[in-house]
């Protein structure tokens, strides 16, 4: 996908909305700017993974009590948790 934009007098550049949408880049996304010979590349900054202790893990993940939950339901719940966490 190609698009055009202009640099402001302060050196600011707006990434066009259709490009942001195609890349699923939301507001406040931190970007790494990589300078080339005559170009730049913007990449989302890697977020450091938070490590937790076993005690913290057991506070988050509680044992399930009751009837078995179908696999399709818990897989979607886990996927939603990751979508919320990595936005």
Structural features, described:
The protein is of the alpha+beta class. It contains 3 helices and 2 strands; from the N terminus they run H-E-E-H-H. It has helices at 17-23, 54-60, 71-85, and strands spanning 31-35, 40-44. The longest helix has 15 residues, at 71-85.
Portion of residues within helices = 25-40%
Euclidean distance between termini CA atoms: 22 Å
Could you spell the SSE succession in H and E letters? HEEHH
Uncertain residue ranges: none
Q: Report the count of strand segments.
A: 2
Number of distinct helices: 3
How does the overall form come out from the CA principal axes?
elongated
Strand residue content: 5-15%
Biggest sheet strand order reads 1-2
Overall pLDDT score: 86
């Amino acid at each position: 996908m190609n698009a055009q934009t202009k640099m402001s007098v302060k050196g600011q550049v707006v990434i066009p909305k259709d490009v942001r949408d195609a890349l699923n880049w939301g507001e406040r996304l931190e970007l790494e700017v990589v300078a080339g010979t005559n170009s730049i590349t913007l990449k989302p900054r890697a977020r450091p993974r938070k490590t937790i202790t076993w005690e913290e893990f057991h506070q988050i993940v509680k044992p399930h009590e009751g009837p078995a939950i179908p696999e399709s339901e818990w897989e979607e719940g886990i996927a939603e948790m990751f979508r919320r966490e990595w936005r």
